Task: structure prediction
Amino acid sequence: MNLRWEFGVALRYLWMARKRAHTAFLSLISTLGLAVGVATLLISLALLSGLQGQIKSRLIASSPLLLIEPAGRNTIAEPQEVIAESRRHGMSSIQPTVSGIAWGTSGETGRGQPLRLRSYDEQARPAAEKSFGREWQLPDQDDSIYLTRDAAAGLGIALGDEVTAVAPRTRLTPFGAVPVWKRYVVTRLLPPVLDEESPDGWLPFDEASRLFGTGGLPTSIEIYGGVSESAERVQQKLAARFPDLLVKTWREINLPLFLALRLEKIVMFATISLIIFVAALNLISSLSMMIVEKRPQVGVLRTLGASEQGVLTLFLAVGLLIGLLGTALGNLFGLGLSWIADHYQLISLPGDIYYVSYIPFQIDAADVLGVNVIAITLSILATWYPARIASRLDPIVAIRDE
Result:
């Protein structure tokens, strides 16, 4: 179908509408309403993408790129082979760990609570918290343990106090089976953590292995560093080489968080899209007013041979042009403001309270495409009903109205 005359007449109708104040006002309101809706949605999505990008980057930096765990047993039987195979595929920062849950008690306060303990690398000890200009740590001893402030507060102990860790296992003695336990000195207090699966305390690898009875074998192997895009490739290689091990990537480890972030973005997209929907509804009144004014011209077009489909396409083109203009203005304002706010860091935040110094904005091409498709589609759908009415006008009646 040749659409040149329909779009030509649609452009002429929009250009001539400026001479009629009420029609021009309605068209302007429809265009600006659509532009505001598009700009608002783009800015909101850019803000959410920027914050989620910061969260993901911190997860990549703090979470292991790959987590290797045993399947059907408590420890990894051949950790050296796993480490060697990981290094062969380009992984460099590999950390075997021992983790478990013990019962922690304090003899001085009489309090007790479960403690999630894990081992740490001797070359990379957890950093103590700094508060009021002093470090929350003492010189390490043979029986040192690191605790979070939350765990220490739950037990009612402070730096330098003793805590007894009771392992979930027993050993045989002449008096029967007795629980395995050891008393440690708290030599370092660490910042509290928000993750429920994060440890409450840290021990050296050998000490954690003796406490939980792993015989020097790790309960998991964590691989840090490398490129996040290579995680899936290395995962497939290790899973094929060691079928008795579970190999998870950083995406699978943090899957619940990623699903929550995705759901948050979908909900925000759907909610703010209602602004575009309301703005698109204004096109109905704008186009209806134009159809009332153009009834005689529609009758003339019909008598000159224009079909119902041609008239329908004509007024759909009017709505499409208004939608394109409003969407273009919304893109110009929304994307421009997002880029300026991110590039010049216009919205700053206090660094001692938030984990970012400014509010980041990240423009995602997929989000921009989705917003534009929604805006233009709603513009066309909103003009369908009045355009359909115009296409069914009786040409004789329409010319008589002039």
